[in-house]
Predict the structure of Metallophosphoesterase.
Amino acid sequence: MSRFRLTQITDTHLGARFPEFVENFHRVSQHIDDNRPDLVINSGDVAFDGPDHPDDLDFAKALHDALPVDCRYIPGNHDIGDNPTLTGVQPAQPVSEANRQNFIAVFGEDRWQFDAAGWCVIGLNSLVMNTALACEAEQREWLAEQLSAAQGKPVALFIHKPLYKDAPDDAETAATSFRYVPMPARSDLLNMLDGMNLRLVACGHVHQRRDTTFRNVRHIWAPSSSFVIRSNAKQELIGVKEVGLVEYVFQPDGFEVRHVRAAGQINIDLFSVLEPSTAV
């Protein structure tokens, strides 16, 4: 296949008790049905609260099963819990192997690789990084094998959290952080990617649309399909606060990116749905 069409959705935050987010997902589903890409990737936070409400995972999977094309998944912090950090407040829902296994039981995998249109496409579980869980070392060994097998092919990496804001040595992102892949795991991952033909890093998590390039690597932050956080006091403005999705076309000599908002999608503010004290 010399041309591969891929649609990235993210931060769907699905749960039966949040009909507003479900309605936005239906708008995205209709857009996918109308355009029929070769594959859909959900880059995490598929469910609203997998750790405390495992039924959210089943509910989210049922909605994705209705999509007209195949879908692959990587977990987000709302699916399996969040990374431990070296500084600052520890997450209220730390990632655990039990939560990871719950995710895998529903969605089948938490990391994957495939080749398409001359590209090596990799999905990583960024939430197990810095955990010292056995699965972290297993994923690292697996990634090394995939990168070795790529043999110069252009690489597209899909993760839940952004690697960094603007550059690896940003003062804001040099320390560990809940927003980005935490240190020191981030440095290790960047070292593994150094020298590879990395062209694209695609993520979600921030609920803001962003499109930047650093040293010939394009960094796409896909917007949430479910909600935004309108208040800049509650969440700093880094990109564009709007719901939507991202469409890619991969070819052996490059790739195209199209930033899309599905017809009928609404910029729902999280704090209009939740009490501020429960928002995360």
The chain has a mean pLDDT of 93.
